[in-house]
Write a structure and sequence with these properties.
Strand content: 5-15%
Bound molecules: pyridoxal-5'-phosphate
Order of helices and strands: HHHEHEHEHEEEEHHHEHHEH
Number of helices: 12
Helix content: 25-40%
Largest sheet: 4 strands, mixed
Distance between the termini: 23 Å
CATH superfamily of the largest domain: Type I PLP-dependent aspartate aminotransferase-like (Major domain)
Number of domains: 2
Length: 355
């Protein structure tokens, strides 16, 4: 079997460092917040080139906290992409605001800056692009605050908008041993507001100056992430090298012209390597039968999700995103993926199209 992710293989060579981090937390008796979280925030901010990092309980809660800090609520609109994980739009809708889905770029599958600007109205409180699959998205040039969903793109360059939400869900490029996230920003007032909101708006303790939530990062996750963060550049280099190898293998194989590879970018961190494949579902079944795991990110563009049915966006309203949903296929690209596995994956894809 060639798995899509291999967390055990990633952990094995650094197991002693991770075990030591866990032991440190157990011995400290501090399990929420505290010095491990503060140290991780400092190290993460330095790594990401941001002035501030605020740890959160997940990437979802990082998005939610940023939008809460911007006072996004009922009557407001946030322009975003329909071609993303649910949390992007879910964070908007949970605050009573309207997610306004705009079309994506056909090459990168990220929110098209021109379409995003065209979708703005006087009610638009923010624009929320996603650096999908680790590819840095082009951002619109506007006075409207830009909140970046960087859940898949840690290491792909500095924060360019007002703030960025990152996820450290176990399968992300920097994965915790459970849920974890962070907000990155250069704005000290915004960082302070998010730190307030993540702890029920209490300052000092039991004096609530804002309505926040429990968006706190666990000390155990912070300590494990501190052990893993120094390895992220090497893991990213491995992902990029795998992408280069895939490109060489695909170039040498006989494949239909409609099979498209993802566009490259100097800062791409290849959270996923997503091809556009004719007869995608048949190809996926062929690869599964050959022991190769793949995934479809995302089979349903969010404007077609039943929970957003009230927005009234019919089939055909965002055709680029809809076509992508029918064609995308993510191939394994985790750092420990062996050369023989990459060769076998492309060989099996070529075999499928030969028939
Ligand atoms: C993973 C992810 C999130 C949510 O992060 P969690 O840590 O799982 O809450 C949000 N947006 C995108 C694009 C993601 O891939």
């Amino acid at each position: 079997m060639i798995p899509l992710f291999d967390m055990a293989a990633e952990l094995a060579p650094i197991r002693a460092e991770v075990d030591a981090a866990i032991r440190r937390v157990l011995d400290s008796g501090v399990f929420v917040g505290g010095p491990e979280v503060a140290a991780f925030e400092t190290e993460l901010a330095a790594f990401a080139g941001a002035r501030h990092a605020v740890g959160t309980s997940s990437g979802t809660d990082a998005l939610l906290a940023i939008l809460m800090a911007l006072d996004v609520g009922p009557g407001d609109e946030v322009v975003t992409t329909p071609f993303t994980f649910f949390a992007t739009a879910g964070a908007i809708a949970r605050l009573g605001a309207r997610p306004v889905f705009a079309e994506v770029d056909d090459a990168t599958l990220a929110l098209d800056p021109a379409a995003a600007l065209a979708a703005c109205t006087p009610r638009t409180k923010a624009i929320l692009p996603v650096h999908l699959f680790g590819h840095p998205a082009a951002l619109p040039v506007t006075e409207i605050p830009i909140v970046e969903d960087a859940a898949q793109s840690l290491g792909a360059g500095p924060v360019r908008g007002l703030a960025a939400a990152i996820s450290m869900f176990p399968t992300k490029n920097l994965g915790a041993l459970g849920d974890a996230g962070a907000v990155l920003t250069d704005d000290p007032a915004l960082a302070d507001r998010i730190a307030l909101l993540r702890n029920h708006g209490a300052r000092p303790k039991y004096h609530h100056v804002a309505i926040g939530g429990n968006f706190r990062l666990d000390a155990l996750q912070a300590a494990v992430l501190r052990a893993k963060l120094p390895h992220l550049p090497a893991w990213t280099r491995a992902r990029r090298a795998h992408a280069d190898h895939y490109r060489a293998l695909f170039a040498a194989a006989r494949l239909p012209a409609e099979l498209r590879l993802p566009p490259d970018h100097p800062a791409h961190v290849y959270h996923q390597f997503v091809i556009r494949a004719p007869r995608r579902d048949e190809l996926r079944a062929h690869l599964a039968a050959a022991g190769i795991a793949t995934e479809v990110y995302y089979p349903e563009p969010l404007h077609r999700a039943p929970c957003f049915g009230a927005l009234g966006l019919r089939v055909g309203s965002l055709p680029v995103a809809e076509r992508a949903s029918a064609e995308v296929l993510a191939l394994p690209i985790h750092p420990a993926l062996a050369e023989a596995a990459r060769t076998e994956i492309v060989r099996q894809i070529a075999r499928f199209y030969e028939r």
